[in-house]
Amino acid sequence: MRMRDIEIARKRLKENNLSLVIVKDGEVIFESRLQGLIGLIQAIDSLGERLSSSSVADKIVGRAAALLLIYSHASDVYATTISLDGLNLLIKSGIRVEYDNLISRIMNRRGDDICPFEKASLMVASPEEAYRRLRDVLSEHLF
After folding, report:
1. Quick check: helix, strand or coil at residue 123?
2. What digits encode the pLDDT tens for the residues 97-123?
């Protein structure tokens, strides 16, 4: 029996210590070790429409990542760790979700405040607006 795309993505994520794996039609179309949303935004920028109906395995999915996954029209998502907000958004959008750990919120690397991307996503209603805003926040943090 052929492995489902989400199973391929999950297996590669765990076995290769990656932070993001995207699989479509049995083929790995993107993978990254970069932390945070960098890899997901790179995938959206480089693959665009090819992300539609893909299966995504991501180490950490919060509200911000969920909005980006909705924006990119992923069909199913596996998260090692997912926030309650992220889970609810994905379910509401009809995206199938599997996860290992459910947490209340995604914190910054120091653990003393909510993640800056999560903060930026709180004031955003649409996935399109989230993509634009999170991309801006990412450029501010990189430069």
Report:
1. coil
2. 999 999 999 998 899 999 989 999 998
Number of neighbours of residue 15 by Cβ within 10 angstroms: 9
Sheet holding 55-61, edge to edge: 27-32, 20-24, 55-61, 76-83, 96-103
- For the chain, the structural domain boundaries read 5-142
| pLDDT value of residue 53 | 97
Residue matched to tokens 């765990």: 14
Whether the full predicted model's pTM is greater than 0.85, yes or no, is: yes
The two tokens of residue 122 are: 């709180």
Say whether pLDDT at 142 is over 60: yes
**CATH of range 5-142; options 3.40.140.30, 3.40.50.2300, 3.20.20.210, 1.10.8.10:** 3.40.140.30
